[in-house]
Amino acid sequence: MAGILAWFWNERFWLPHNVTWADLKNTEEATFPQAEDLYLAFPLAFCMLMVRLIFERFVAKPCAIALNIQANGPQIAQPNAILEKVFTAITKHPDEKRLEGLSKQLDWDVRSIQRWFRQRRNQEKPSTLKRFCESMWKFSFGLYVFTYGVRFLKKTPWLWNTRHCWYNYPYQPLTPDLHYYYILELSFYWSLMFSQFTDIKRKDFGVMFLHHLVSIFLITFSYVNNMARVGTLVLCLHDSADALLEAAKMANYAKFQKICDLLFVMFAMVFITTRLGIFPLWLRFYWESRRRKKHRREPLHSIVGEDS
Fold it and tell me: What is the DSSP string of 101-136?
């Protein structure tokens, strides 16, 4: 076990050249990100799930009812043990040959059997009320965390000049606000990982599961090796469009089509601007070009000293 842990926490993978874990231990003068800090995300993710249950029941559900969104589900299929066995164990979409066999076995016409399978498939679809409550939770959290990120980042020098993300790296002290921001984001993604198995089942389940895994890995990696400054910029950029998407879904469930269309257009504009414009051009390409020019003009020690 010790060998596996030593391999996993290999300094050559996590840290810059000539930097060791001992260099990033907390001191009386400065606090640095520690891997054990991230354990806090697990109990917070559980708490977040509990808050979500309370929010959906006592906040989102009354809002949905006030918007005339009902919990009425689809029509229930007539109980039938033979058809239920075929549905659960063999196929939810029987072909023509199987339909004819079931028709003879049950003495039903083929159209009635097709109707039964359609109703049975619809039973597994969640109600509009449940969809609305889920979207309202994600909207509320997304709006909160994005607002917090903007309020936090506007007070930092690296929002206005991305070179500050790397001055004196990796010896950049960890502030309480930055720590809270990271733990909050990581806890949310862990809660999504857990709730995905009980939430509305969608066709992109596997894709979203992989998305959450990658997000958790990137947040963890950037925190442990103290790339937290640039990490906060990436988090804020990616959060900027999420609330608009969930708001558009809520408007769609409430049958406010014009508002839904407007919100979706706004979401598309923000998404394209942040993910395909600001992120690659400002956060990556712009800083890289400025850093190369700076390194050619002056020695490294003068750059490091700017942020001290």
Answer: HHHHHHT--HHHHHHHHHHHHHHTSPPHHHHHHHHH
Contacts of 190 (CB under 8 A, 6+ apart): 41, 42, 45, 216
**44 and 134 within one domain:** yes
Among 177, 176, 152, CA closest to 233: 152
List pLDDT tens digits, range 231-272. Answer: 999 999 999 999 999 999 999 999 999 999 999 999 999 999
- Retrieve residue 285's tokens: 């390409």
Q: How buried is residue 178: exposed, middle or buried, by Cβ count under 10 Å (0-12/13-18/19+)?
A: buried
Structure tokens, 100: 């004819």
In angstroms, the CA 274 to CA 284 distance is 12
- 37 and 87 inside one domain: no
Q: Considering its fold, how many domains does the chain have in total?
A: 2
Q: Is residue 22 part of a domain?
A: no
CA dihedral for 233, 273, 245, 197, sign (positive or negative): negative
Residues 202 and 104 in one domain: no
Distances (CA, A) of 73 to 129, 151, 257, 270: 9, 42, 22, 34
Structural domain includes residue 7:
no
Range of the domain at 214: 32-67+126-289
Q: What is the pTM of this model?
A: 0.81
CA distance 236 to 270: 12
Selection from 44, 8, 59, 53 nearest residue 189 by Cα: 44
Residues 118 and 140 occupy one common structural domain: no
CA distance 180 to 174: 10
